[in-house]
Amino acid sequence: MSAITLRKALGVLAKSSSFSVTTVTDRQKDEFDQLKSQLFVKQDIETDLQRYLDTAKLGEIIFLCGSSGDGKSEILTRCKSDPHYQHKFSFHLDATHSFAPRQSAIDALNDLFDGHHHQAQPLLIGINTGMLANFAREGAARHQAIRSTIDSFLSAKQDGNGPYQLANCSFYDFEHYPKFQFDKNKQYSSFIKELLINLTKDEDKNLFYFIFRAEEVTNPHLKEVANFKLLCMPGVQDVLITQLFKARLAKDQFVTTRTLLDFFHHLLMGPGYLFDNLFTGAENDLIKKVSDFDPARLHTYELDQFILRYELGLVDADLDDFLVALEPLHIKFDRQCVRPGDATSLIRLFWLLQHEPLGNDYYRKFSAFFNESLLERYSEIWHLHRNYTADPEQKRSLNRFYAFELIAGIQRYANRKAPELSMQKEEFFLGEFGGVKITAPVDIKPDWDSIRNKHTAHSTGFDVYLKVGPNSLPHIHIGLNLFELLEKLNNGYRPNKYDKNAIVLLDEIVELISEQAKFSSEIKFYDGGQRIYRAKADDDMITISGMEG
């Protein structure tokens, strides 16, 4: 065991490692297999699948589907190696493979289903969702029943855990078992947290930690030693999980087990300290998404002042004391020889340590700039939608969001070309013709019945329901980006090209409301001066009146 360095041990995390994909093999197990098994976290999808396998009937086809790298082959290899299952099922571990050099994966599936009949052993298949779609489109005509069942699964809108079942087929989809969850205690992924604990827990039977301790004694100068020590801190783990959750919500980044392990490999084995590796490394998909959350981009007055003072070498006794406290972590900053980027690295370190006590807690003075208030507010509103029962206190809290955040933000955006409407809370800008701006009164309010009766909370966001007058609008999905844009609009922000994805959604909402507003019996005309004219329909009469602006 002493021959294995920390670098080699952490190599099992990399997606380029031979251990990144599990296959059935007769190879003798070694220490690297032991290291990989140390990381194992049983997922809910595996628990549900095994529970179902105990009741599976002859002739059934069970698909375990998802994205490449999410652990399908890992789960099926364990099932195939389990005496309880290995003689009761037929296994096809990876449906992207074929059985012969000139055979396509589609042909292999056709042959597989040819040999399957109603009295055959249940068939258990690991398959990418994309390959499922390919087979539904290109599979042999003789398997039309299976192809139609796959089509039904792919077109079904399923929210929440559990399999999709139709005819003799069951589909267990990783997408229906999200790795993140909204949590009032800010623990956004129990799966990733457990994985990190398995990697870093301080106990002798944890080979990673055993090897780390030996390396720390002999080679404390190595970056991977400092990075592993940082990753052992629970507060650091929580900050990293929060960034991954934000990437899932704001960047629509699906996180598989393989990409996650490769992400941690980059953090630990990248060229710099963990807090710099987190925001540099274009070859890693997660790093590319998380880099947008780099705290070095914040540019508040206080943070900019810190960078300036540090780079000028100005006296800061408290900072000097803090840098001394970093030495047991094997993190070194030399104030006598300041290198470009050192101040930026320190800001990232301050941010990473925000939930951990260290030395004189110098970095606490910047904590206010590092909070996740937007995500926490988003999570709060998500929970209000999910748990809504029309309780008066719930309704008051949710109404504050609808009135002062959602509806106010929509109206500010809709009326952005008519600043004279800034004080007119119930008017909606419809357009401008010949220099005259036309508006209509709108009564936008929450659709409480729909909020109570519909399924409003989803794994990556929530749906809102509005009424314009007596008419209900279709549901509107509020993702984190749109939620952030609404907050900014209410604080006077003017959208730009970088907001285009959220703007498209906001434009659709405004269009829905405008269509309803056009049926109003009253419209107003703003002539650009001080005159406002009101046209009001009453039976077959239209009354025009003027008023001062």
Would you give an account of this structure?
The protein is α+β, with helices and mostly antiparallel strands and 549 residues long. It is 45% helix and 13% strand. It is built from 24 helices and 16 strands. β15 (531-538) and β16 form a beta hairpin. The N and C termini lie far apart (83 Å).
- Can you tell me the overall shape? flat
Q: What radius of gyration results from the CA coordinates?
A: 29 Å
How would you characterize the largest beta sheet?
5 strands, mixed
**How many β-strands, per DSSP?**
16
Distance between the termini: 83 Å
What is this entry, summarized?
With 549 residues, the protein is an alpha+beta fold. The protein has helices spanning 6-10, 31-38, 44-53, 72-81, 83-86, 105-114, 129-138, 144-155, 190-200, 207-218, 223-231, 234-250, 257-269, 274-277, 285-290, 301-312, 317-325, 342-352, 367-370, 373-386, 392-414, 448-453, 480-490, 500-517, and strands at residues 61-66, 90-92, 123-128, 164-166, 169-173, 427-433, 436-441, 444-446, 457-458, 461-464, 466-468, 471-472, 476-478, 522-526, 531-538, 541-548.
Keywords, separated by commas or semicolons:
five-stranded mixed β-sheet; single chain; five-stranded antiparallel β-sheet; 549 residues; alpha+beta; 24 helices; flat
